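Can't paste images in this forum, so I'm doing it all in text. The chain is below; anyone willing to post the predicted structure tokens underneath?
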Amino acid sequence: MLEYSHEGLRKIHDTLYEMMIFFHQLCEKHNLNYYMIGGTMLGAVRHKDFIPWDDDIDVALPRNDYDKLISLSDSDMPDNIRLLTMEKMKNFPFAFAKLVNTNTTLIEDIGGKEVVTGVYIDIFPIDGAGKEETTAKKLNKKIEFLRKCVFVSFSNKRYKSFFKSSVAQGIRLIDYKIWLKWLNKTLKKYPYESSRYISNFLGAWGEKEIMHRDFWGRPTLYQFRESQFYGPENYDKYLSSLYNNYMELPPIEKRRSHHNFKYLNLNLPYEEYLKQNGKL
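Text version of the structure:
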């Protein structure tokens, strides 16, 4: 895991902030609803900025808006920005999208395999979870199983126990892209519009991501540095569901990135890195 200097983290924040300004403008241009989520939303409410030790931005869109976003043409993007999805990129084991700065290189370790992109904004779909909480939790369990299958199939992770190793071998008989297709289909089981409960099923918080749709409400502008970006209308209910007492800072030892980044270069285009290392 990378350790950042104060100056290095500031440069990452500045790069992400400029990307977020573009993303906000892109969504407004195409009438797409989005929300800041997770630590990004927490940063907006608690710091009016990034969480000081955070190193990414997370946003989410209702499924229909998400699908419209990922179908946009490359001509909608400036030269230094690219929207990556599982359909557009090799070695991309994610069922969500990433808005990437192509003038940078970022290498992430996914179970012993390198995923090479640039500094990115994670873009998640918000999907319907049905009309009952029990239904939503049942669907979440199935999705978590499929997410694990994608990870195992893609990764090089070795398992010590004979049982886990045998299960992994069985999962790896099926290519991770097929697992991703099954996952993507399962995410869309319940329509967003008619669901009482909705979820960012691909987020980091498991069942906590399942919320009554009123917790999200209408996209509402919040101060973030010198700009304003959209987040959940009922931010207190949303953040309390994920973090409980969200205004309280965590212990110092927990103030760190949760990503498994191996390499970062803010001045090297990732396609150039791939060429230099014979991976393009």
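The first strand starts at residue 35 and ends at 36. The chain is about 40% helix and 20% strand.
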